[in-house]
């Protein structure tokens, strides 16, 4: 799946940024319409996109060398975590980070309770480097509402967090590859849009907004620098940005 987007939107691993003189007329697209690409030119109906000379965007999460045992990094993480929970509670979000991490056997069955069980199993599997400890991974994929369900967004962020701490750690890298392959194998449980994000995150490729937040935290930036980046990442979609940031912060701490 490819995504065309315009102007100042965040970069995406499957995205093509177009920069026309005016606003692009994406209304020209119709379901079932053929798209062709010949000699570096993309054609779809009346829309033509020249690809020659375009820059290829990729993030390099392992180079961040994330390590929450460093005081500055932990402080940056803590600031982002507090901002996330405050925003989730103000928005009345279905998923709130602090509640997600708090085991509560008396909690009635809900998306939050199922997500909490899934993420705690995933954390246990990550610490053991053993996917057999995460039988509930399948239940997270496709779980929740929205164009990209919350469970998928959390997994995208979680994988980004793990990749950000994998530098020079072959044991971690092997586990992340195994987890990524498991996620891709289960991605037919969700829709095509979400499946695309899961596929790329399994290979360490996420949106530039999420990658920029990971870089700010792993670099131990001061709160004044981290919070605007966190806000930008959380503002994506209705709850997708908050869910992906939730996954990222949990993955960094795993």
Mind explaining what this structure looks like?
With 254 residues, this protein is mainly α. It has two domains: 3-50, no CATH class; 61-253, no CATH class. 49% of the residues lie in helices and 7% in strands. It has ten helices and five strands; from the N terminus they run βββββαααααααααα. The protein has helices spanning 71-90, 97-100, 111-128, 137-140, 150-163, 170-186, 192-202, 208-218, 223-234, 240-253, and strands spanning 3-6, 15-18, 36-38, 41-44, 47-50. The chain has a three-stranded antiparallel β-sheet, with no helix packed on it. It has a two-stranded parallel ribbon with strand order 1-2. Helix 1 packs across helix 9, helix 1 (71-90) packs antiparallel against helix 10 and helix 6 (170-186) runs antiparallel to helix 7. It is globular. The two termini are 30 Å apart.
Give the key terms:
about 250 residues, mainly alpha, 2 domains, three-stranded antiparallel beta sheet, 10 helices, about 50% helix, about 5% strand, globular
Q: Helical stretch count?
A: 10
Fraction in helix: 40-55%
Distance between the termini: 30 Å
Overall structural class, as computed from helix and strand content, comes to mainly alpha
The largest β sheet comes out as: 3 strands, antiparallel
CA radius of gyration is 19 Å
């Amino acid at each position: 799946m490819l995504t065309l987007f315009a102007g100042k939107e965040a970069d995406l691993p499957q995205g093509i940024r177009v920069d026309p003189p005016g606003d692009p007329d994406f209304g020209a697209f119709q379901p079932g319409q053929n798209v062709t690409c010949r000699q570096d030119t993309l054609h779809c109906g009346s829309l033509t996109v020249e690809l020659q000379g375009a820059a290829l965007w990729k993030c390099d999460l392992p180079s961040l060398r994330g390590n929450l045992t460093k005081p500055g990094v932990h402080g940056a993480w803590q600031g982002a975590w507090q901002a996330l929970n405050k925003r989730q509670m103000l928005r009345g979000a279905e998923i709130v980070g602090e509640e997600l991490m708090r085991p509560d056997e008396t909690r009635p069955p809900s998306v939050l309770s199922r997500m909490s069980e899934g993420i705690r199993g995933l954390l246990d599997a990550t610490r053991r480097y053993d996917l057999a400890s995460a039988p509930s991974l399948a239940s997270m994929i496709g779980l929740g509402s929205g164009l990209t369900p919350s469970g998928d967004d959390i997994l995208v962020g979680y994988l980004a967090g793990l990749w950000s701490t994998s530098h020079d750690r072959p044991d971690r890298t092997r586990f992340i590859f195994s987890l990524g392959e498991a996620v891709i194998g289960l991605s037919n449980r969700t829709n095509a849009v979400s499946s695309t994000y899961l596929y790329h995150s399994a290979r360490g490729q996420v949106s530039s907004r999420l990658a920029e937040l990971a870089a700010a935290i792993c670099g131990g930036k001061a709160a004044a620098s981290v919070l605007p980046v966190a806000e930008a990442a959380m503002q994506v979609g209705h709850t997708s940005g908050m869910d992906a940031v939730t996954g990222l912060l949990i993955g960094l701490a795993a």
